[in-house]
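Researcher: Next sequence.
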Amino acid sequence: ESYSLPLWFYSYSRKRILENTLSLTMLFPVRLTGTKYGCGTGGCGACTVMISRYNPTIKRISHHAANACLIPICSLYGAAVTTIEGIGSTKTRIHPVQERIAKCHGTQCGFCTPGMVMSIYTLLRNHPEPSLEQLTDALGGNLCRCTGYRPIIDACKTFWLVTICLMTPVTLSLSLLFKISLKLFSEEEFLPLDPTQELIFPPELMIMAEKQPQRTRIFGGDRMTWISPTTLTALLEAKFKYPQAPVVMGNTSVGPEMKLKGVFHPVIISPDGIEELNFANCSHNELTLGAGLSLTQVKYILGEVIQNLPEEKTRMYRALLKHLRTLAGSQIRNMASLGGHIVSRHLDSDLNPLLAVGNCTLNLLSKKGKRQVPLNEEFLRRCPSADLKPEEILISVKIPHSRKWEFVSGFRQAQRQQNALAVVNSGMRVFFGEGGDIIRELSISYGGVGPTTVCAKNSCRKLIGRPWNEEMLDVACRLVLDEVTLPGSAPGGRVEFKRTLIVSFLFKFYLEVLQILKRMDPVRSPGLADKYESALEDLHSGHHCSTLKYENVDSKNLPQDPIGQPIMHLSGIKHATGEAIYCDDMPTVDRELFLSFVTSSRAHAKIVSIDLSEALSLPGVVDIVTEEHLRGVNSFCILSEPEKLLRTEEVSCVGQLVCAVIAESEVQAKQAAKRVKVVYQDLQPLILTIEEAIQHNSFFEPERKLEYGNVDEAFKVVDHILEGEIHIGGQEHFYMETQSMLVVPKGEDQEIDVYVSTQFPKYIQDIVASTLKLPANKVMCHVKRVGGAFGGKTYKTGIMAAITAFAANKHGRAVRCILERGEDMLITGGRHPYLGKYKAGFMNDGRILALDMQHYSNGGASLDESLLVIEMGLLKMENAYKFPNLRCRAWACRTNFPSNTALRGFGFPQAGLITESCITEVAARCGLAPEKVRMINMYKEIDQTPYKQEINAKNLIQCWKECMDMSSYSLRKAAVEKFNSENYWKKKGLAVVPLKFPVGLGSVAAGQAAALVHIYLDGSVLVTHGGIEMGQGVHTKMIQVVSRELRMPISNIHLRGTSTETVPNTNISGGSVVADLNGLAVKDACQTLLKRLEPIISKNPQGTWKDWAQAAFDESISLSATGYFRGYESNMSWETGEGHPFEYFVYGAACSEVEIDCLTGAHKNIRTDVVMDVGCSINPALDIGQIEGAFIQGMGLYTIEELHYSPQGVLYTRGPNQYKIPAICDIPTELHISLLPPSQSSNTLYSSKGLGESGIFLGCSMFFAIHDAVNAARQERGLFGPLKLNSPLTPEKIRMACEDKFTKMIPKDKPGSYVPWNVPI
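Model: Next structure:
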């Protein structure tokens, strides 16, 4: 029996009823804006919510975290959904989780914070006293681009019973001797966690679950029907009636297919609470698991079974459990079902290769009866005879216990160790029979090397009867490589890496079994060499531990003076409660429209025709804006080169904007955009790489050049000369909030308001005014806050805002445009890939006397900021070193990629790495330690830069020395060498890198800033300024400035946001100087006010600000003032190569220790020590947060973040599933940050220094630590030649550099004999 009904569930403690439901609509239409939409594929965790259900059979309520972007509303019938709004708010009370993540400084831009909070909250609902492993595991599916995760872990640790961290002796002694602080927050102030005060499960839902008859529920929409059977009989009936309908449990497979690939299912069947699908039964010989069990439930069950059975019976279960710990994030594991994972048969499934070797059986059921099929290669290849029939349901999976003398293992290697799809994974099983080492049974399967899981059946058959020895291993490797073949053009690329992993995994299995055989029968089995044992050990792991050191504020300051105090981010609590409003959180405007872009699918082509007819005929479509509509206003000059807004004649990259669809809803706009038909004719040449640009002489501008000394003469007197080069890959900004804008016409006088997530309101105002042919005073740009930017929300944002404004102005209606993550990554570009070439002349002691360099950046299809990037790269390229004779030339290459743009560091992370690579190679050639060569070439206190600006490098030397001491470098270097001598397959590396980061914008005009401060009659203050709050805490620092200058408590001061209406002509927020410049403007305004009010205050010195404000008003004294700062003195002449472009220098040093697995390329950061010269910190919590966040982002740049493009210029990596930024598993196990005590005053804001960008370069300490480890592996293998490693140092590059018999054994494809899947950029 079935019935149709309205859908209802509980959210935010309220009953929600949806009458007309689109069946697969996700949770977001409820419009609780605290839940953030970050990627739409379940990969970032920003949309995490808690789902609670009551099970009437066991009388228990279950809670689990889930990704709202994947949850079909129809699956929530009868469930309680708790969003961030439901657990606490500033209007009611905040929850301890919200309080602690905010007060531990675990928020910066805040966009990811609600998801973080909900993940921790859900864990605490299930485990009020969690272990640290449970806490970090709960956050494994949540990404953060700002904080570096350390403060989030600190917040988690406050719920952990044991919070011991061994601090270094240096830190402890300093804290006793000097005024040194070691904490940024006080745990004693935190609200206690009281489980009795949590929201109760709605009683109505419990009653419904107990009493409601088991009937099939049907929800109907315009295009789709959702059938939710509650009994097995009803499920079989539904599947018989709709055999092609997918069975959806967690929607982690079907959902992304529908969203990303456009797959449509008119009927979806979703079983709900069917006991026969949700059970576990452990008998004498086997474990049977219901297909409806979530992967989290399977993980728990396997853990229980392992505890209760003898070890020899649990080897398969241990292997499965090991994979489940790293498979996806906890939200996905909570949603995904075992049956769905198996039946989907994804090529990179982690469980299927293991289940395929374990003699597992699938129990199937249909109306026609029961059937069993083996889970083997035929099933995985979807052979008709071994596959499910359309009307069949997978009921359960039967997994046999392991036998004595039977061994099972699983292996995987991914770009990131957790929450990342495997590059290659494997399941292996061998059975010897009683007491021998002769192979009786052998099964080997691999994932990631074919369209589905591949089983090496023939190889296994030929190895039966062989003894388990090295001869067998050698034969096995060759057999498997012959059978499991990969063409050079295989999808996913990394072909040689995959081939190597195939045999590397087999070798690991061989060693693992050999070790167990030795343990079981020490007499008969050969021993495993001690040096080889490391191949079987996991990479270094341990509890996360951190120490922080900064100087206490001078006690002479007034007690209420906030400068120098670790004050929480102004919006921290609102971030944690979801009350912080971002652009897309703004309420819908009456009659609002939505805009979606149509982008080019070709990299270099003429547009032959554009057919809009089908798109325009779709319901809800209002208009499509093309270049024709923008005639006369379709270009705008960005810096020195005009750029078109829309293209309808010729496109020069994939992702270029062709036209824009305007519709009544987001869904309608996106559907119509897919129906626009564009016909292209490809053009030549297609230029993608820097080498191709050089070949075609494709550059934007003449070269930029910097020269110092006499390079040519110096080369004649040096002892040695070397030449080398290094490639540095690009980087995606991956701000958590995608490009977002809402344009609202005001309805009179042609006024228009633009609400946009941007770093540059003035530019938005200018380009919109130009496009609408309006004066700038009619266009107002408003920015409350930005959910991360890193340089990526400037020029492309302006182009999209101008088109959106044009549509809004044309139709007289508000228009909203929010990019999907994939669109954003495709359209916006990122950090410039670089090619650096160097020729160095040096002496035997490592002194570099002559350096000739060439920098090439991949600028993309339009200029954007590419010229500025190479200029800044040139000015900062020497890093911390004095090269007496230097020549460096740089070119920005024009290619057929989306134009690359500013990204944190602005050219220095690439230019600095080129220099450090040269230093490392010089050290190797001299036979010296790299740190010795770094030290001998370092600036020596008072000196001169290549552009003849004076520099005092005293603090650079101090940072270097303190870093060496704090890290115990010498002792640990010896320990690393000892470890490497004792371990063949695991290696450690240690590297220390100095930092000199010049801060300045190159011109006075670019550094001007303004502010506006009002004092109201009640004594409260409103401040606005030209800086954008994008996570760095600039608004917090500005309030600290007002508090000090006006000597009033922070609670009296408010800041509403940034707007061109209050502060005009603002400069871009970037370059590490936002707080510097705007703070000086705010200070100027406050001093103006204070000077005016001096007579008033002196008459009543004991009065309050309310008294003084009223008195000033009564005497007609203005209580409003503008502040202005004209900018630091700055100049640079490229004709002479001389100038004073920078105001000051940030110094620092970082030491990192890493461990690598030579067989797989995996690596782990064991420890990082960072020392930074920050001047007098305005807010140590914010400054340390910037250092840590930048370091982790830099670590991503240099190790795991890798962009992949097709040979046709199409970006493959368009979301968190393909593009991996560092997750919580990637941060150093130990992290120690020390701020150098201030030693000199300057004319900056309170002698502080801007820290937004500098720390990113210190991430290369990881790069060189890995380089050191790889070098150790190569030298042990007799490879002493120069080691050339490019960035990022991914697992692929690490593994292939650790050459051994396995890398030599694999087949190699001849270049030119195949078309590669991707091109190296």
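Model: The first helix runs from residue 84 to 87. Residues 19-25, 163-178 have pLDDT under 50 and may be disordered.
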